[in-house]
Design goal:
By secondary structure, the protein is mostly helical. It is built from eight helices and no strands. The protein is elongated.
C-alpha cells in the first residue's frame, strides 16, 4: 500500500492503514532519534511522540512531499526539542549525550567474528564519532545523520529541516570536516 493511500485511509479512521505507516517508518525514525539523542530510551520516546504527533496532524500532510520526509521532519524537530530541554535541565556540566560504551542497538553483528584488535579499533572510532557529533551544532548533527546514517538526499534533508540546499550542504560539510579532523589520529595509528 502506498503512503498516500495509507494516509487517506488513516484519515478516515482506518487504524490498520496507520499501523502500516508506523511499521514502515518506525525503525528509521528510531535510528535517526538514537543517533541524535544518543540514548535508547529517548529514541523510543521520540518514536512514540513522532507518530502520535503525526496522527494528530495527518490533515496537515501535503501529498506533494513524501510521507517519509514529513515524518523525519517531525522526528528531527522533536529530537532537537528534547536535546534543548536536556541542556536546559542538565545538572551535570559537560555530560555526554551519546552512549560511550560503544553499544548501538541498531547495529547488527557482522557475518565473521572480528579479532580483538578490530573490535578495539571499531569501538574507538565509534566513541570518537559520537563525541565529535556532540560538538557539532544541532543543524550540523541532524543534517549529517540524515545524509550519512539515513541515506536521505539533499532535497529530502532540506525539506525535512526547512532550510535551503546551500545551508544543508554547508552543515553536512562542516560536520564531515569536524569528523575527519577528529578521526585523523585514529586513522594514522591504524
Amino acid at each position: 500500500m502506498e503512503d498516500s493511500l495509507a494516509v487517506a485511509l488513516a484519515k478516515s479512521g482506518d487504524g490498520d492503514a496507520y499501523r502500516t505507516l508506523v511499521d514502515r517508518y518506525s525503525r528509521g525514525v528510531f535510528r535517526l532519534a538514537y543517533r541524535m539523542t544518543g540514548n535508547e530510551q529517548d529514541a523510543e520516546d521520540v518514536v512514540q511522540e513522532t507518530f502520535l504527533r503525526a496522527f494528530r496532524h495527518l490533515h496537515r500532510w501535503d501529498a506533494r512531499s513524501s510521507f517519509g520526509t514529513w515524518i523525519y521532519r517531525i522526528a528531527s524537530n522533536y529530537s532537537l526539542d528534547l536535546l534543548r530541554s536536556r541542556k536546559r535541565h542538565s545538572t551535570a556540566a559537560g555530560a555526554a549525550n551519546f552512549d560511550h560504551e560503544g553499544k548501538d542497538p541498531m547495529q547488527s553483528l557482522p557475518a565473521e567474528d572480528p579479532g580483538p584488535d578490530r573490535l578495539l579499533y571499531s569501538s574507538q572510532v565509534q566513541r570518537q564519532v559520537a563525541a565529535t557529533l556532540e560538538t557539532c551544532s544541532e543543524m550540523e548533527r541532524t543534517a549529517f545523520v540524515l545524509r550519512h546514517f539515513e541515506g536521505q538526499s539533499i532535497e529530502e534533508i532540506c525539506e525535512a529541516l526547512g532550510v535551503s540546499a546551500n545551508s544543508t550542504k554547508q552543515s553536512i560539510f562542516r560536520a564531515v570536516h569536524k569528523l575527519r579532523r577528529a578521526l585523523e589520529p585514529l586513522v594514522n595509528q591504524a
